[in-house]
Every structure is written in structure tokens, then in C-alpha cells.
């Protein structure tokens, strides 16, 4: 994930956020995968979230553990944090922890919403079972909006796998 903060005491404009040097910084940051270039995609998120009110699965900005001045700047449009996520890096981190990724290329769906995480479980009798986890985009949104790392997503997947393993019947 690449975080960029923009501040203007008089209030930010869209042109200030869409500066050309941001694309250069993105390429130089290392966020793009060389090993899995075909998976690369950049999803741009803004904090505060501009999608409007409604049910969200992440902490609202007014509860962030930040200085009051920064919070006021966020609320009044003087400070904007742009978070860029490359799903390829999320997939690589999950695969490094033993998960398999099934990419379902669905037209019109962002890449981070169209992959399924699977893993192998072992029944007490030794049989192999497969578990699939869908909708991990909610954890990606949480990671973005609460300034967590990609490792957090791996820990959530690992916790789900471990809980499922423990829940298998012992007979």
C-alpha cells in the first residue's frame, strides 16, 4: 500500500490531488509486482471516504487516534490521504503464507473483490479438505481506512483457517 497525504490550508482541489508526480512516485515505490505483473492493478482510495454515508466496516475518521488539528483538517477538506492498493501484492502475501488464490476475472468488478482465498485443512482421520474464503475486500477496506498493513489481511485469513481447522469434528 502506498499512502500519500495532501494538504492545503485553503482547501484542496481535485487538480492538486491528481498531480502528475503521483504516478511517478507510484512506479518508484515498489508497490507494483514484477513477478506477477499480469495481476497488477492500482485501486485508489481516499480518506476521508467520499462514497457517502451508510454501513461501513471500518473505523470512522472522527475516531482515528490522531491529533485534533489533523482530524479537523480531514473533516474540512484541507487534508486528504490517498491510499493506493495493488491487489497483486495482497495475493503474493497470502500465497507466501500457504494460501491459494483463485482470480475470478469478472467484468466490472475491481480485482480485490474478485479473488477467492483457499487453503487445505486436515481432518482428524487424515483426509484433506479445502476451505474457500470469499469477500476479503471488506478486510482490505478495513486495512486501508485504519492504516493497517497487508500483513493484517494475512493474519485475518490465517485466523479463519486456524478456527476452521479447530472446528473440524474429531470423529
Report on this model:
The structure is a single chain. The chain is α+β, with helices and mostly antiparallel strands and 171 residues long. It contains six helices and six strands, in the order βααβαβαβββαα. The protein has helices spanning 14-17, 20-28, 68-75, 87-96, 137-145, 150-167, and strands at 2-7, 43-47, 79-85, 100-103, 115-122, 128-133. The strands form two sheets. It has a three-stranded antiparallel sheet. The protein has a three-stranded antiparallel sheet with strand order 4-5-6, with helices on one face. A hairpin with a 5-residue loop joins β5 (115-122) and β6. The radius of gyration is 19 Å and the shape is elongated. The mean pLDDT is 84.
As a percent range, the share of helical residues equals: 25-40%
Largest sheet: 3 strands, antiparallel
Structural category is alpha+beta
Q: Beta-strand percentage? A: 15-25%
Radius of gyration: 19 Å
Overall pLDDT level: 84
Can you tell me the residue ranges where pLDDT is under 50 for at least 5 consecutive residues? none
The succession of helices and strands, N to C, reads EHHEHEHEEEHH
End-to-end distance: 44 Å
Quickly count the helices. Answer: 6
Tell me, what's the shape? elongated
Total strand segments:
6
Task: Order the strands across the largest sheet as they lie in space.
Answer: 1-3-2
